[in-house]
Amino acid sequence: MHVRARTSYYQGYLDDHELAAQNRRHVADYERMILSPARTVRCAELGDELVGFVVVGTPYFPDPDPSVDSELYQLHVDPERHRVGVGSNLHSSALDVWRDGTSVARLWVWEFNERARAFYERHGWEADGGCRPDDPRVGRYRMLGYLLNVGTPGREPTRTGSE
């Protein structure tokens, strides 16, 4: 499911050989991530079929915004299940996790992934003008930062404005 999801948004930005190599590499990474006590994973299933998942946890990088205390690492939906509510339900699951003490959440999304950016913006995320600290690239594209004020009153995220 994850390979199908990431292939759908990388199509046209990574060549098939590079995408296949990355897909093989990520299997062990996912095993470690799922078992990490610093991460929470929620899955969406229809019957016996996995159709999506979301992963949240402590920020991977020190954040330029001191109010950030959690990160949405990934939210993937099987491409055949886009626009039917799976992603929104997974996002709600992340919010449920965050209600247990998170103030401001961070996510990084590829600049070219307009579908994901629109999804997050519909769910209240705001671009903060930052780019991921390790600055990964796919061609000329970078990972852009988004923030979501999860709910501690009076604690607003800082806009970095850096490029």
UniProtKB/TrEMBL annotation:
It holds the Pfam family Acetyltransf_1. GO terms for molecular function: acyltransferase activity, transferring groups other than amino-acyl groups. Signal peptide: none annotated. Residues 1-153 form the N-acetyltransferase domain. It comes from Actinophytocola xanthii. SUPFAM superfamilies: Acyl-CoA N-acyltransferases (Nat). It comes from the Bacteria. This is N-acetyltransferase domain-containing protein. CDD domains: NAT_SF. The lineage of its organism: Bacteria, Bacillati, Actinomycetota, Actinomycetes, Pseudonocardiales.
